[in-house]
Amino acid sequence: MAREIELKVPLSEEQFDKIQRILSKQENLSSFKFHSLEHIIKCDEYFSRYHTHEERIANKELRVIRIRTEKLVEQCEDNKEKAYFCIKRKTIENGVEFNSEKETFVDDAEVLRAFFEAAGFIKWFEKKKDALGVICSLDGSDFEAHLEIEKVNGLPYAEIEYTKDDLSADEVRSCLEKILLTLGIDPKKRDSRSWAEILGR
Q1: ∠ CA(92), CA(96), CA(98), 5° rounding?
Q2: Fewest CB atoms within 10 Å of the CB: 115, 137, 186, 200?
Q3: Quick check: helix, strand or coil at residue 171?
Q4: Residue 102 near residue 86, CB atoms below 8 Å
Q5: DSSP for residue 52
């Protein structure tokens, strides 16, 4: 079960456009290093036995029960959609998400959807994400994180995460915040709500 430390911060359209220009190399930010640029379309379907967030918490249901389908936006005809099944336990400490996650590739997502229906689960909500993702670091640092700027159901956000266990949580948080600050993003504006809460579910 992997540890995942994540920050997500809402962006203005101006901030989103500026970072998009940096990632597309139309604008230079010398201290910010990145590689492995990907444009990804993701659709997350969240399932539950309950109809409200309060019911889920009261009954100690896993925080995330999800089918994710994703596709890289590339100029190739054989670029196929992939699907994954994921469960997560999530805690929030000082506005920073700590996730314990298990995920596995799914050959046919329809089989899982049919299982959920037969087992009495409902599709609680759906999240659609159009994201530019990179592996990034700051000049002179060995610390690398995964950054995405994204439109989530139309809302502009930045998400940055670190999944290794080699540093303390405080060190990871400090490094993530430095990267955000370099991009002109105030980490104090981070959003510690779940996507269900953000999207009004």
Answers
A1: 60
A2: 200
A3: helix
A4: yes
A5: S
Helix (H) or strand (E) holding 39: strand 32-48
Q: Indicate if the alpha-carbon torsion angle 171, 161, 166, 35 is positive or negative.
A: negative
| Amino acid at position 19, single letter | I
- pTM score of the predicted model: 0.82
Q: Which of 143, 173, 144, 148 is CA-nearest to residue 159?
A: 148
Q: What is the pLDDT along the chain (201 residues), one digit of tens a residue?
A: 467 899 999 999 999 999 999 999 999 999 999 999 999 999 999 999 998 888 988 998 988 899 999 998 875 555 678 999 999 887 776 666 677 889 999 999 999 999 999 999 999 899 999 999 999 999 989 999 999 999 999 999 999 999 998 999 899 999 999 999 999 999 999 998 888 889 886
Residue with tokens 């303390």: 168
Please, are residues 124 and 196 in contact by the beta-carbon 8 Å criterion? Answer: yes
